[in-house]
Structure formats: structure tokens, C-alpha cells
Amino acid sequence: MLVIPERYSKPFLDAVRTTFSSIRHRNYRLFFFGQCISLVGTWLQNTALAWLVYQLTHDSRALGLMSFLGAVPILLFGIYAGTVADEYPKRTILIWTQSFAGIFAIALAIFVGLGWTQIWLLGSINLLTGIVIAFDLPTRQAFVVEMVGREDLTNAVALNSAIFNGARLIGPALGAIIISAISIEICFLLNGISFLAVILGLWMMRLPKNIQREKKVRAVSRVTAMREGLNYLYDIPNYRALMVLVVTMTLFAWSYTVHLPVIAVEVLHGNSSTYGALLSANGVGALLAALTQAAFGPRLRARYVIYFSILVFVISISLIPLFATIIPILILLGMTGWSIITFFITANSTIQRFVPDELRGRVMGIYSLSFAGLFPFGSLLAGFLAHSYSVGVSMWVDAAVLFVVAGLTFHFVRKLPSLSQIAEQTGSRTISLDIMKQALEA
According to the CATH classification, is domain 22-441 in 1.10.3290.10? Predict the structure, then answer.
């Protein structure tokens, strides 16, 4: 019988225990399992919509335009939505946003079932859903700390990503089967129904009365409130550099997903099942990233994790255009999935870990804008580059920009104390502008 020495087995067992530590909180447990169901539905819809649009147009620009319409509301309303999240009970906001998202998904199923598949109609539904997401995203991210507390925040952020990417693994494969065996509108219908799981979980949560019902009184105008969030992130140099990286990764990294239908059809000469396989391979890497960050994230130095993940992404995305067979492309997409999710989990948890509670909604609104609101511009650029030149040129341009920006920001931050060092030296759980100023002066 094989006996593993304790010095090796104990760290492994500790990591397993900490991977799911947030599940011990009842409210988060309800949220977790509701999201497990709902996000599979979301990926069913994402897969079906991208495939439908490409089948209707055979134009990568249309895919970029659809992504633009779905995400541009976050650009317009993201920071404003963060001030709403700071003012109103977050659970109430989420119940409304999840309800509307479900209604729009069912409407999409009805329209497609009736044969109403004009691009302008599909784009309009996508735009309305994007408006809902603009308010849902910062609220949902800021709500995490109210479910698990600050001590399990990093773990919960990673588990949220694990749910998303687990669904990303299951949803595309299931969507491809449903599209082939039944019909494409069933994917939209199932997504609409799946929102009931999250809504039910939110209703069942037990929250303190001040969190459940209290509407905070605004001391300043919404414009001033939004400016306070922007000033906080800009005036702390660590956050300023991190947000530059978030914006750059959003514009020049996430956009590679726009190319996947094109790679499936024009490079690999496949069908919807091939497209589902590409998305699933990407999801495997992303799921592994989320689970490893849930287990080991708090023990790793965030700064090095961020730059290592960018380097892995640049290498993998640069190699994809060099292959025309499915196996190496699947492996490389797994690497891109791992690297990009590792980056965004680390960035998200780094920001949330030290931000003051009274600014959390606004800061996450700005983060959501940078993370998702700018995505459509990257998608449009990627779509037009791929149409005018090739998918390979588009990916190589993205890799070059990321490499240059990462190098410049690393040169800037390497001389700065880390946020965790500042918090440890000052004995503070949050980092205000005054605390950062004192740390830099010291």
C-alpha cells in the first residue's frame, strides 16, 4: 500500500479543504448552486446565438457586432450601476435583473421559434439583455462579500469563476447536441427557465436587516459618487497599473473568442460540434484556473501570478494560427482559458480584498466597465481584422499589444510595495488613499 509522507499530503489536503471553504456560508451556498444551473443556461444561449448569427451571415463582423450590442450597455451604465449597488439592497437589485434576463431569453426563444431571425431583432434583444447585465454585474460582484465576509472573499471570487467556467465546459457541448438533435430555440428557452434557480436562491437567503432592507442615504450626487470611485482607483498607483492591464486584457485578450466559430468552420472545416469542442477546451483550462486559484490563490503573490498568466496567454494565442488540426488548437485553447481566467480572478480579488466597503459597488462598477464594457470594442476590432486580413493577423496583433503593455506596467509596479504588504504594515483590512500616501512616503 502506498503511503504518502505527511509533509506532502498535508498541504494537498489543506488545499482541498480551502478550495470550497466559501460553501460553508448558507447564503453563498444557495447562490452557488443556483448559479450552477443558471450559468449552464447562459452558455447554452451564448453558443446558440453565436452559431445562429454566423449561420445567417457567414461574416465575422456580424459576430463582433453582436458582442458589441450585448456589452456596450456596461460601458454606458457600468459606473452608474455601481452607485446604485452602493445605495440599494443588492439582493433586491439582483432579483430584478435576473428576472428581466430570464424574460428576454424566453422572448428570444419565441422569436427564433417563429422564424423571426432578422439580425436587427436578435441584436435588439442582445442590447436589452446587456442593459440588465450592466446593473447585475457590479451588484453581483459587490454582493459576494455580504455572503461570505472578507476572509473568504478570494475563495468565493475564484469559485464564482469556477461555476462560470464549469458551465462554459458543459454548456457549449450540450448546446451543440441540442442544436443538432432538437432545435436552436430550445437553448434560449432553457436559459430563460434556468434563471428561476438563482431567483429562488436569492429569496431563500437570510440576510441581516440592515443589508436586506436598508437604502443608504446619498450624501453626494451620483456624478460625485462616480467620481469618488474613479479617483480611488486612479490615485493608488498599484490599482492604476492593474486597471491598465484589465483594460488591455479586455480589449486584446477576450476578443479571441470571436474567432472560434470562424476557426471551427474555415480552419478545421467542422460544424456546430467542432465549435462546441473549441469552447469546451477553452472551458477546461478556465475551470482548472478557477479551481487552482480557489485552492492556492491566497497563498500566491498576486503580482507574479498576474504577469505569468499574461505571458502564458501571449504565447498560446500566438501559436494558435500556426496549426490547422484540432488537437493542438484544443490544447492551446486550454492554455488561453487557464491564463485569462487566472488573470481576471487575481485582478478581481486583489481589488475587492482591500477596497473600503462604502466604495465597493462603485469600484466594481468601474471594474465591470473595464472587464466587460470595453469587450465589444475589442470584438469589433478583432472581427474587422480577421475579415480584412486573417484570424492569425488579428491574434498576433493582440499578442504584441499585450506583451508591450505588460512589460511597461511591470517596470512601473516592481518598485512599489504590494497592497498586502501595506495592509500588513498598517494593520488595516482596507487601504484608503491616506494609508497609501503614508506607505509611499515611508
Answer: no
